[in-house]
Amino acid sequence: MKNLILTTALALAGSMAFADAHSVVRMGTEGAYPPYNFLNDDGEVDGFEREVGDEMCARAELTCEWVTNEWDSIIPNLVSGNYDTIIAGMSITDERDEVIDFTQDYYPPTASAYVATAEGTDLTGGVIAAQTSTIQAGHVVDTGATLLEFPTPEETIAAVRAGEADAVFADRDFLAPIVDASGGELMFVGDSVPLGGGIGMGIRESDTELKEKMDAAITSMKEDGTLNAMLIKWFGDEIGTY
User: Fold this and answer.
1) DSSP string, 166-225
2) How do residues 14-47 score in pLDDT, each as one tens digit?
3) Nearby residues of 1 by Cβ (< 8 Å), 6 or more positions away
4) pTM above 0.85, yes or no
5) What is the Cα gyration radius of the chain?
6) Is residue 6's pLDDT more than 70?
7) What is the distance between the alpha carbons of residues 161 and 159, in angstroms, rounded to a whole number?
8) Are the beta carbons of 202 and 100 closer than 8 angstroms?
9) How many other CB atoms sit within 10 Å of the CB of residue 175?
10) Whether the Cβ atoms of residue 81 and residue 206 lie closer than 8 Å to each other
């Protein structure tokens, strides 16, 4: 009985400590990667990950608020405690997993792709634009092409349009609406490349209970079809689903 009482007391203390530390869970995102995340006309975080994140918080019975942070420092600022999660189109990789923890994926593994202004672009010997600190930037280096890095995804597209880069390499689902809206100026070239293990929520390694709560929320969203509906809403009928 004493052991039972002690175990119960420790569990209660742990839950209270979690509640004290996470009275408000701060959701960190970039706010510049549509349709995953972006700022709408009212200056508020919007997009697929806003909808997913709000639903996760509701199911986990957590009060959440959204903050934005530039991509190239988004992991250091999570580790430093400036927010509690990263929900920003971040692919799960072994390298990142050495620094932070990840929930299960809420976006299935999909392909990255090249976009250029003309067919026949040299993708291994030319200049390829990619966003800094992404798995796409790492892949460009591995191919032997010259990497031209930019802090934001918009700048990578602008570099191709201005002739500074021969092509841009990024998530295909990010590039598709840009290509569609370009009126033929931009086009997919070369083969798509599967990278990463899907997109998950980044969490500090010490926040195990928060990870468990978010994992449970994602699982329930997969099981009842809510997550698939959100994927199709934001990315179309051809998107991979669970």
Assistant:
1) SEEEEEHHHHHHHHHHTTTSSEEEEEEEE-SS-EEEEE-TT-HHHHHHHHHHHHHHHHTT
2) 444 455 556 899 999 999 999 999 999 999 999 9
3) none
4) no
5) 20
6) no
7) 5
8) yes
9) 21
10) no
Instruction: Provide the 3-class DSSP secondary structure of residue 17.
Output: helix
In the block, tokens 């209270």 appear at 16
Mean pLDDT of the chain: 92
Place of tokens 């839950």: 15
Which position has the token pair 């449970």? 216
Q: Which residues of 86-97 are buried (b: 16+ CB within 10 A; e: fewer)?
A: bbbbbbbeeebe
Q: Determine the pLDDT at residue 20.
A: 54
Residue with tokens 């934005």: 68
b or e along 183-222 (b: 16 or more beta carbons within 10 Å of the residue's beta carbon)? eeebebbbeebebbbebbbbbbeebebbbebbbebbeebb
In sequence order, what are the beta bridge partners of 202? 86, 102
Which residues are within 8 A (CB) of 194 and not within 5 positions of it... i.e. 6 or more apart? 109, 110, 111, 112
- Helix 48-60, helix 208-223: angle, nearest 10: 110
